[in-house]
Structures are given as C-alpha cells and as structure tokens.
Amino acid sequence: MQIILLEKVANLGVLGDIVKVKDGFGRNFLIPQGKAKRATEANKAEFAARRAELEKQQADILTAATARGAKLA
Q1: Which of 25, 39, 43, 52 has the least CB density, counted as fewest CB within 10 Å?
Q2: How far apart are CA 54 and CA 4, in angstroms?
C-alpha cells in the first residue's frame, strides 16, 4: 500500500513523503491516527493544495515543543 505522510513518522519519513508500507500498518495505525492518507491521485492533488498549511502546522508544533523544552531546561 502506498501512502502520503501527513506528519513525521519515525523510521518511515517526513511530511509529504509517499512511502510503501504493509497494508495492516497503513490501515490499522497510520490512517486511523491521521498520520497518513492513501496515495490515490485525488489525495495527491488534495495534499499538493494543502501542503503549505500542513507544513505551517508542523512548524508551529515544533516551535511550541522547543519553547516548552527551553522552559524546562
């Protein structure tokens, strides 16, 4: 099964990567948790349109985590 990653996934890839995974891993873990979508032509086009929005969202999460880490240190 080919999927489009919607966020960074350890040992798999980063936002926007199209990767091949086993069917069970994609259907039972990545897709239900919102970490990926099937790599159909329609989903590829939708992702291309939303890529900037998703990248900004991931950057905001990283900034918040970095600030929280600096506060704890």
Answers
A1: 52
A2: 12
